[in-house]
Amino acid sequence: MAAGKRKKIAIIGGDGIGPSVTAEAKLLLELYQERAGLPIDLWELDLGADRYLRDGTTFPNQIQVAIQRECSAVLLGALGDPRVPNLEHARDILFGMRFGYDLYANVRPVRVLSDRLVPLKGRTAKDIDIVVFRENTEGIYVGVGGQFKRGTADEVAINEDINTRKGVERIIRAAFDYARANGRTRVTMADKSNAMRHAHELWLRVFQEVRAQYPEIQSNHVYVDALCLYLIQDPSQFQVIVTNNLFGDIVTDLGAALQGGLGMAASANVHASDPARVALFEPVHGSAPPLAGKDVANPFAAMLTAGLLLAHLGWPEEERRIERCVSRALDQGMCTVDVGGTLGTRAAGAWVREQIAAELGPAVGTSDPG
Question: Do residues 312 and 270 touch, judged by C-beta distance below 8 A?
């Protein structure tokens, strides 16, 4: 397990609860260094609201370039702080990586790790196992637009929804490639082509063309509002969902509700057609400033995100191990209040790491005295 070229991982704790949950994930990665001998090197970066308020730094070009050249992955906590109302630092850091590294596929697993977290009557964890592919570099979030007569009764505000043939095709293809590689048999594409007939007609047309190249995979198209209804009525009918930037953002928060809340939701941002390119991993939840420093935030999303990161770097069995140990924590109530436990952030993270350590055994290079 320890063989292979060393992988450098940049770590950005961020704002609010970000540093505390990221600290638990960092300790998990350090455990893998020690116990499993994984060839990973951790590079902790001082970026976020505190740094911005201290000296005006957001995301320096030299850091951006160094990450791109030297790192295999980035683990990011969460960004957003009320002391920076325009979120300048957050935009520069997050979009500097998503757009700057062309990480066009935001991949969000919606998987339930304990039956008791399922909020739907008559459903169990086995009914909810979905992976959402959200287009990550186009759509309404590109920031194209403007305001005219700002602050007056005649104000006009415009945001442009940008969709390119290249961008649409590559995210749809990424969803089908994932399904093929992971034994999934169904892909669903969601848009609003009945109302957005120019931009989303492109999505529908490209989807029809790409799906024909994957005849072994069942595929269907639904409007996004209907998708939200169907996800609540019967989530078991979905395996892989692909959609645009805005709709993916909304649908995956609904997915988080199905899996026990934002404290259980992990995500990856990747350039799907070039796995060697640096990738960004972040829990779905926000920075939750009111909870910062109170030892109450759920660390499991950050730890599950570390599992996604390890799988991306070539150790998928460790992602499964982390999921298994988190599931055990949930079933035994060794978790934070939001998912039915009584532990704080640090204690919940430590309990899961102890389970993983027990499975991994003694540190690499040591012998068991027993």
Answer: yes
